[in-house]
Structure formats: structure tokens, C-alpha cells
Amino acid sequence: MASNFDFLLAQKDYKIIKKTAMEAEQSLKTSYPKSVILAERAVKLAVRWMFTHDAGLALPYREAIARLIHEPTLKKLRPEGLDSLVSYILHLGNIVAYRGMTVSREEAVLALRALHCALSWMAACYEEGFSPRPFDEDLLPTGGKEANPEPLKLLTLYKEPLDGGALLPQRKKNREAAKALAETREKTGNGSIVTVPPDLLAECRSRCIMVDCAQTGWTLGKDLFVNKEIAGKGKKTTSVDLLFTDAEQKPLAVMAVETAAQTLEDGLAQAKAWAAALEEQHGVRPFIFLQREGEYWFFDEARDKLRSVYGCFSCADLERRMEFRRRHDPEAHPELSDDIANRPYQREAVWHICEDMHKGLIESDQISSMIFWGPPGTGKTRMAVGAIDALFYQKAIGKVLYLADREELVHQAYEKFRMLLPDVPFVDLLGDVREEEKADIVFTTATIMMDAVNESRTETGARLYDPAHFDLVVIDESHPSIYEDHITLLNYFDATLLAFSSLPPTAPGEDAIYRFYDLAPGKPTFCYTLEEACRDGWLVDFTLRDEAPEKIMEPPLRYAELTDAQRRIAEMEYSDTGAITSKDFDVPAVNNWLFSEEKIQAMLEDLLQHGKKTRDGKLGKTIIFAKNSLQAKAIAFIFQRLHPEYGPDFIRALDVRTPGLAEAIHAFSQPESQPPIAISVDILDTGFDMPSVLNLVFFRKVHSLSKFSQMLGRGRRFYRGADGEAKDKFLVIDYCKNFAFFDMEK
């Protein structure tokens, strides 16, 4: 039987893709929804096939399909307009699976036409001499149904795992063939013989509007109306392209499509006229949206600014923003509890955030991003808690996303918020997500949030995280590497950004951070310097012992000399993906030195001799920063062999596999308890608050300036012991020329 996908027979490697595409075509006989689900599945299989068989495509850290589709090395290859076709297929399949939407034959056939174009382009990339054929609707079977009587089976089919498992092992297995196919793709001009037909592109973009609305939870004829007639000026009636309403059919938003297709200015003028007419009738002015060439725009009337957004806003989010527009009270200042912010600069920072948020919401000068700079130990989490509490009180925000780079930092922030704001509903997306839909504050990493945007659903099957779900996004630590995930995520959410940074504004790479947040380089919104913190008695300075061997540890490059690409790799060390960095910077001689029993023994003797002591002459609390678990265990073993007189609990290695890790950290954090020495493998490096630490030992190279700053911060906190003795300084012993790498004088 002839098929539109017969061209896939030319390659045996396309077998599963061909089978699925042909099954999607034949499913038109029985079920249009099933045809759509299978077309969506064929797209995913094709994308995975390309990453498995093309060495020129960069595999992302996580292999979720949304990441693969938007991976830059693939995205730049696709012909213009193909993204719109793929989006139509994927989003249509999504609402069919999760919301049980009915599908017309026209919609299902359009998905097949879009799939045919996408797979033709794939074949053109990897087959020299490929000749594309037009889609032939005469080959399609007749029959079919718009609704599927067994929606649960469709959802099961949609969620069924794709064949093949992890992509990286497959790529390695196909290494030589993958190189050859990448070369073939380059010879074919990246499949340039295939282009997207203008009529197909126009129809996909047109239907994508309704698909996007359905994904966000809108239901046609219930709270979404197309070409809805309303009373205009005088007694004339006018037709609104798209009207969004609440449950009582009071207007929430209008969207101009037809006039916006001409120019954005024409569309905005038309939408303003609709909004004015609806305001006159209902006493409420609806929000204004435009849609043009597959892109969405939101008109921020308070700022008189038209800005690009990533899609439709949900009914709940429009209602929340409408309520804030009515009830926001910038003069309402709650009493900040001393349990939240008890230092003068912390309180100043909180009210600074509130004032800037007010300017961003009400005044014409746009403030959509803020950077607050302070060294580690100044309490950025408390400042964030205080600001969020005040903004909730002022009815300026209702939903907050809290982003951290590492899972441990996410958990720490979550626990601190739960302690300080016990009545606010929270969720940690790295843990129990049963209350995810009800949460007012969501804690997670950017990588996990990216997956949640694509996967999390409401009780009705709608996308939970639409672009307006959050009013404020807090970035726990903003540093010189804004990862791809961060950029995509921060652009996706239509929210005010509040970033905290522990690095001076003049640090290498920081100018890129300020540009990203639309701020003048070197001009943070609020700053509290290390000098001020030491002067005010909140932090202390340190003494440095440089014990690094010159020839081995002298850095061939310094941080300021790194290229942007090298700096991005270096800064990934701060996140949970940091394991990839050592191969980019370390040399074998460094590793040999760090793992030498002789050098470990010398380091330990040096620490016992020169490390800062408590008043009774005992070694003060000490953190040794180790490269990995193997090195940490070697350090602990050698110490216990050399000094059995100290007992088995004097030193302990801590990594993610340490039994009873939480209890071990708690024991170390007690000033008078064992062990005095903890060897940290990315456990105590960041986010660990222990003022009694007197010694930091760097027995590893650090490549991330942000991480190095945080590691130094583990000793900076002021402390007064039970005997009244005050900590005036702490000791840093550097065995790896880290200070030289970062051009720090001490």
C-alpha cells in the first residue's frame, strides 16, 4: 500500500520512524486523536535518531525531548518555519493526550503534512541525491473519528518510553557512522533542498493559537471565544478575534490576530479599541495580547510597553494579575520579624526590593530585573524571605520561583523558607511534588524547572507552568555563566527577576550578567560590600598560607584570561553538572601531586602545626576541600594511620554517599563536638553556615570564581565562643595556586 512516508524505506536505520509515521497515517481510518499521538511520537523518534547518529549535534546534559528539540546545534540547522510545524505536532499531541481533546480530520491531516515535511528534511540531510516528494492527500485512508472512546489508552501510548534508552551510549557505539553522517549532512547543505511550504506554515501557525490556548487550559465556547461580537462605540458592534473570560464570562483579555498580521501597531490599536469598549460595558479593562507570525506579544499598559511573551497566559494567572492590579498597595509595610531580617542592611535591602517592584508594576520606567550584591555570609536567603513576605503583604506578587544551581542549595533554601514562613505553601521540585499545583513558592534548579514546564499538569490536564505562572523569579546565585537553561527559562517566564550575587560587579564576566538583566555594567540595584560587612562586625577577614608547589600548580591560564566559552565551562563547576570541568583544565601532574601519599601526609602535618587553635590549644574546626571521594577517603585514612592517638572520630570524609550525611553534617557543625576536621567533596563548599570554622584547606583546584567565593565564605562568619573568645580572623591554606588563578592578592 502506497504511503506518503515511503521515502523512509531507503534507510534501514529509519525503520522505527517509518513504522510509526505510516501507522499515524493509517490511523486516520479509525481515530484522528491516535493519528496525532503517533505523529507526535514519530517526531520524537526522529529527533532522538539524529542525536544518536550525527556526531555534529551536541548532546545536552539531560536528554528530555524538549531539550533535544531546542538544542542550539540542531536548532540552527532547521530550515525557516520548521520549528512552527514541529511545535504544532507536539502541542497538539500534548492536549490530545492530557486533556482528551477532540481532533478534526483537518487537524490530523495537517499534523501528517507537517510530519512529512520534517522527516523529508531529515532524509535530505543524510541522503545524498535525495529528491523530496510533495504530500499526496489522495494516499490517505478515509473514515476515522474525532473523539477517542478510550482516552486512557491514548495517554498510555503518549507516555510509552521511546526505544533505545540513553543516547550517549548509543552515540559512542555508532561513533564512526555518526562522524560519517555528520559529514554527509554538511555535504547536503544541511538538507537545504527541503523548504517549508508557505501555505503549510501559515496554516500551522494559525491553528497553533487554538492549540496553545488549549494547552494553557482554555476551552472554546466556555471561557474562550473566537470572533466574539461586542458592542462598540455608539450602537455599532465589533468582532473580537479572541476573547478570554472568567467563569462568569467577564472579560480578562483580548488578542488581536488579523490586524496584527499587518503590523503590530495596527493590531495594538485594534486591541485597545476592544479593551476600551469592554471596559465601558463591564467596568474592568481586559489585558491586551497580540499574535503575529507565530509570536505572542503582551501590552503592559502601566509601562506603555509591548513585550514579547512565550504564549498564552492561563485563566488563573490572568485573574491573579487582575486582582493585583486592583489591590496592590505599595504603602502597606508589614513589620519585619527579627527572625527573618535582623540586620540593618538586610532590612534596607528588603524595602529597596519592594520599592523597585512597585516602580516596575506601576511607574513608566521599567524595572523588571534587580541584582543585589553581597559577600557570602550576609544572609541573601533572609533578604529574599523578607522581600517575598513583604511583597505578598502588599499584594504585589502571588507566585514565586526560587532557582539555585545545586540540589543541596535548593533543599537548604526550602528548609529556611519553611522555618521562617511556615504558613506559606511551598514545594521542592526535587522532592515531594504532590502539592505542586497549590504551591505559592517553588524551589528547584533550572534544569529540573525546564522539564517541569514541559511535563507538569493541572488536575484538568492543562500545562501548569504557563509564561505568567510566576510573578517573581529569584536567582539564588547569579554568576558569570548564565547557562543555556537559565537563559531559556528566564526568558520564558514573564516575571520580575531578583538575582543575588556574591561577586564584585567588576569581576571578570560580570558585565555579561548585568547586560542580561538590562542593567548598567557594575551598577547593582543594591550592594553591601565585604569591607562594610567586616567593618560592621558581621564578617571577618583571613590570613593566607600559600603552600602550592610553583612548577606543578602554577596556572597556565588565569581566570581573567579565559575566553567566554572557557569561563562558561569553568562556572559549570558551581552547578550539579560540574564533573565535566576537570578534564578541561587539570593536567595529569596536578592529579598525581594531589593523590600522592607523601603530599597528603605533608599537608596534614602542616595543618596540625599551623592551623588556628581554640583558646584551649585544640585545632579549630577545619574544612579540607577535596577533589573527589577517592582523594577524600585517602586523606582520612592516612591521617588516622599517622595519628591514631586522636581517635577514629577526629576526621571524617563527607560526600553524597556518606551514610547518615545529614547527621554527620550536624555533628560537625556543633562547635564542641567531633569531628574537628571535615573533608568536603562538594558538601560543605556552598550554602553551609558554620561560624565556628577557623581553617579552610584547599587541596583541590577550583575553576569557578563563584564557587571559590562561596568556599571562602565558609570561614567568613563572625563567631563568639562559649568562653567569650571572638573570632577575629580565619586561616586559609592554599595548595593549588587558586588565589593566583583568580588574581587575588591574599
* Mean of all residue-level pLDDT scores: 89
Distance between the termini: 77 Å
Helix content: 40-55%
Q: Output the structural class.
A: alpha/beta
Q: How is the main sheet built?
A: 7 strands, parallel
Tally the helices: what do you get? Answer: 28
Low-confidence stretches: 362-366, 578-582
CA radius of gyration is 29 Å
Query: What characteristic shape results from the CA principal axes?
Result: globular
In spatial order, strands of the major sheet run 9-10-8-11-12-7-13
Proportion of beta-strand residues = 5-15%
Number of separate strands = 19
Protein topology:
Layout: H1 15-26, H2 32-53, H3 65-69, H4 72-75, H5 82-99, H6 105-126, H7 151-159, H8 167-173, H9 175-187, H10 198-215, E1 224-231, E2 237-245, E3 251-256, H11 264-282, E4 287-292, E5 295-300, E6 305-309, H12 315-327, H13 344-362, E7 369-373, H14 380-393, E8 400-403, H15 407-420, E9 426-428, E10 441-444, H16 446-455, E11 472-475, H17 484-492, E12 496-501, H18 510-516, E13 526-527, H19 530-535, E14 541-546, H20 550-553, H21 564-571, H22 582-585, H23 588-594, H24 597-610, E15 621-626, H25 629-642, E16 651-654, H26 661-669, E17 677-680, E18 693-699, H27 705-713, E19 729-734, H28 738-741
Parallel strand pairs: 3-4, 7-12, 7-13, 8-10, 8-11, 9-10, 11-12, 14-19, 15-17, 15-18, 16-17, 18-19
Antiparallel strand pairs: 1-2, 2-3, 4-5, 5-6
